[in-house]
Amino acid sequence: MSYSFFDQFEILRLITIHPFGNLDISITNATVFMFIPLFIFLFLFNTNSNNGLVVPGRYQSVLEIVYTTVDDMVKENIPDGGARFFPFILALFVFLALMNLIGLIPYTFTPTSHGAVSFGLSFSLFFGCSIIAFGKFGLDYFSMFMPAGAPMAMAPFLVVIEFISHLAKPISLGLRLAANITAGHLLFAILSSFIWQMLTAGGMIAVAGLFPLAIALFITVLEIGVALIQAYVFCLLTTIYLNDSIHLH
Q1: What per-residue confidence (pLDDT) applies to 148?
Q2: Predicted model pTM
Q3: Burial classification of residue 114, based on how many CB atoms lie within 10 Å of its CB (0-12 exposed, 13-18 middle, 19 or more buried)
Q4: Which residues pair with 27 in a beta bridge?
């Protein structure tokens, strides 16, 4: 049986459910590994499990770092009226970070490596920002496609350019997340396979395999950083888009 490095991204049906004809709501490995971070999130931020000590322990310190990081992000990028979006951004960051980190465990699955998940999140956020902007500004929302002070003769070109760049936001947001997670997992899988072949070869080749093994440990630490950074960047851009929506930039 041949093995491909892309097998780790295969979506597998665990429980097949077809309630109405062609409607498919089957439970897949992607479904499971999106619910696991949800349950972990509910446990982490359960007030009953957090004593709120004046001198925090390690557990509370980590939560406070996450809370403070997201709070600063929201305050810096949405200075006026951003507090109402803080719970959403906090939940989004923890959800993405947990999905990315859990995916680093062998024989697990990373939903954010699939466009259906990453683009689903990015386009949902895009439509949500558009709804917020329409609710606040109405038809004046379309004025954002025409820069102030620009000559009317340039309007057809500027509107098209601004509209395309506006639609590119959710595409770049989802593509950045999926591409970085996928590339990291492929690199790690290829290197791990190479190391295993060297270690099982015996002799001096096995000894030489200790060097790429050290590199693999470094890449593991690097991938943990990438998992957290991609979650942070996704949320950072989300706050910027939200700020543009409520201030019509």
Answers
A1: 66
A2: 0.83
A3: middle
A4: 15
Q: Record the tokens describing residue 238, joined without a space.
A: 């989300």
CB atoms within 10 A of CB 129: 20
Q: How far is residue 18 from each of residues 14, 25, 226, measured CA to CA in Å? A: 13, 6, 37
Dihedral of alpha carbons 33, 36, 40, 46, sign: positive
Q: How far apart are alpha carbons 100 and 224 in whole angstroms?
A: 8
Q: How far apart (Å, rounded) are the C-alpha atoms in residues 110 and 100?
A: 6
Residues 169-206 as b or e (16 or more Cβ within 10 Å = b): bbeebbebbbebbbebbeebbeebeebeebbeeeeeee
- Per-residue CA distances from 112 to 136, 214, 228 (Å): 32, 27, 13
User: Which residues neighbour 19 within 8 Å (Cβ) at sequence distance 6 or greater?
Assistant: 25
Of 65, 100, 72, nearest in space to 86 by CA: 72
Cite the DSSP H helix spans in the chain.
29-44, 58-77, 86-102, 115-137, 155-199, 203-208, 210-247
For 26-66, the pLDDT digits (tens) are 788 888 888 888 888 888 776 554 555 566 677 778 888 88
Q: Interior CA angle at 15 toward 9 and 18, to 5°?
A: 110
Q: For residues 145 and 68, give the distance between their C-alpha atoms in angstroms, rounded to a whole number.
A: 35
